[in-house]
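Hello,

Our lab assistant flagged a job as stuck in the queue for most of the afternoon. It eventually completed. Since we weren't sure the result was trustworthy after the delay, we are filing this so someone can double-check. Below is the sequence as submitted and the structure that was eventually returned. Let us know if re-running is recommended.
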Amino acid sequence: MEFITALANGFIDLFKTGAGIFSSWVTGIIPLIIILMTAVSSIIKLIGEERVHSIAQLATKNIITRYTVLPILAVLFLGNPMSYTFGRFVEQKYKPAFFDANVSFLHPVTGLFPHANGGELFVYMGIAAGITTLGLPLGDLAIRYFLVGVIVIFLRGVITEKIYLYMRSKAE
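-- returned structure --
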């Protein structure tokens, strides 16, 4: 009988935990995302969508800035998941590669800018705990993560762009 009671309690506790997480989202991340979206939209409206679009288009003309500068700025200023909205300024044919570069930078940035992707912080902190145990500095780790991340997003952006354009040309 105790087993059934423990099983029933465990079952309901699972849903209580889920409800607690959902409640924290409703009072935490959801309002934050709405405010960020509103702020970014307001800034774009104040500056002028045409100007912002032109500047972003200028940054996307160069393959290096398209897959380094633009995703870095998106992740640093907007964080995850808002950084994906910068894709609206990228030409359609570059969107898959921009998305790949953007999403690939959400972990390496965590050591220097934890606000950018709080969900990845637990991974970095686990690695940082091991580095600290070895008596090594965390700053070096964070900078290396960031620099390797920039290289990786550039490579992923270029490779994804080439694959997408090749596949698109075969479909036409």
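-- support follow-up --
The delay was a queue issue, not a problem with the job. The result is valid. The chain has one domain: 49-170. The chain is about 75% helix and 0% strand.
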